[in-house]
Amino acid sequence: QLRLVESGGGLVQPGGSLVLSCSASNLRLQDTIISWFRQAPGKGREVVACTRITDGRTDYYGSVKGRFATSRDNAQSMAYLHMNNLKPEDTAVYYCAAEVYGSCSESSEEYEFWGQGTQVTVSS
Question: I want to staple 79 with a disulfide (CB 3.0 to 4.6 A). Which of 22, 31, 39, 115 is the partner?
Fold first, then answer.
């Protein structure tokens, strides 16, 4: 059974950093789009990063450009979201999402598999 589990969220001060992890059970990351979404209170779910299958490059969306980065360990089926220079507006529940043989999409509906989410709170 395919399963995604996020971890690494928490409380951090503005300007701080966090690394989120996404563990993918029964999934070959080489064949899989892994995207990171977030959902702030009262708002819809928005994509922040998507790593393509074709060339392994990552697209970043919105205000996270230049501050967030992704990495992955295919052998361990792990994906990571490195978040730097965090701002209060980054406060949200963060999710990893996967689609086997898919393409990067800003729509959450395009992803079949989701983790349970991890809370990130940026506050002094």
Answer: 22
Residues 6+ apart with CB under 8 A from 75: none
Query: Position 10: which residue type?
Result: G
pLDDT tens for residues 1-11?
Answer: 788 999 999 99
Beta carbons within 10 angstroms of residue 83's beta carbon: 26
Q: Which residues contact 53 (CB under 8 A, 6 or more apart)?
A: 30, 31, 32, 33, 101, 102
Sheet holding 3-7, edge to edge: 3-7, 18-25, 78-83, 68-73
What are phi and psi for residue 30, nearest 5 degrees?
Answer: -65, -25
